[in-house]
Amino acid sequence: MTAARPRVLCVAGSPSAGSHTRALVGHIGGLLERRGFDSGLADLAVLDLPRSHPDHYWSEDPHPVVQAREFIGAVLASDALVIGTPVYHSGYSGLLKSAVDLLPSDAFAGKAVALVSHASGPRGSATACEQLRQVVKALGGWAVPMQVSTVSADFTPAAGGQRDLDVTGPVHARCVELADQLTAFTRAMRGAADSGTTAEGTAGDTTENTTENTAEHSAEVAA
Which EC number(s) are documented for this chain (predicted)? Predict the structure, then answer.
């Protein structure tokens, strides 16, 4: 019997429509589709999620707002996540924080998570990813070692006023490695769940295989 394709949810945490953050997580989602994933997008700029509230956080009842229930359901149904944020005052966006606070405390359990950020300048652009590592840990997930931070110069104009990541630039190579790591971690964690072993026992082996997986996709770096 053929195993179901793994599902990855790409979360764009920018309040701006057509943002660099959305383009970045979409680019990584495309790389993951080429690695056998089904990719979905949660663009927080258009989802119109309600603000989180302690009454809902601690309640076992379904959230009363349909958009929130759908977002929570999409996260829980995913095997892996790509979480992207713009950098505001050296931190991740309030919109993303509010969305994460809608989730149950074990929402990322058994899931590999990739973290990316976008800033107008290079200073502090990686800080938001480091902050999000603590959030991933709190929700029971496993953040992969690689993270990607971009600036505006890493993108090129696209049709309809949109933007695309420049595949000739150095950031694309990091995105390829990030996709390889997320793929390897997801496969290991799905295997651990199927066999009953712990994720802790597989994470180290997965990291060792990341370099090999990256080499297999070296042609993409030059694309």
Answer: 1.-.-.-
CATH number at residue 113: 3.40.50.360
Q: How many domains does the chain have?
A: 1
Angle among Cα 141, 148, 74 to the nearest 5 degrees reads 40
In a domain, 61, yes or no: yes
Q: What is the structure's pLDDT at 211?
A: 40
Q: Domain range for residue 31?
A: 7-166
Q: Which residues does residue 80 pair with via DSSP β-bridges, in sequence order?
A: 8, 112
- Predicted confidence at residue 160, as pLDDT, reads 78
Contacts of 163 (CB under 8 A, 6+ apart): 18, 20, 23, 155, 156, 157
Indicate whether 180 belongs to any domain: no
User: Does the residue 204 lie in any domain?
Assistant: no
The answer to whether 150 and 166 have CB atoms below 8 angstroms apart is: no
Q: What is the pLDDT of residues 42-94, one digit of tens each?
A: 999 999 999 887 777 777 888 989 999 999 999 999 999 999 999 999 899 99
Q: Is 18 left (phi over 0), alpha (psi -120 to 50) or beta?
A: left
Contact 96, 43 (CB under 8 A): no
Report the alpha-carbon distance of residue 143 to residue 212 in Å, rounded. 19
**pTM listed for this prediction:** 0.85
Helix axes 170-195, 200-208, angle to 10 degrees: 140
111 domain-assigned: yes
Asked whether 174 and 146 are in contact (CB, 8 A), the reply is yes
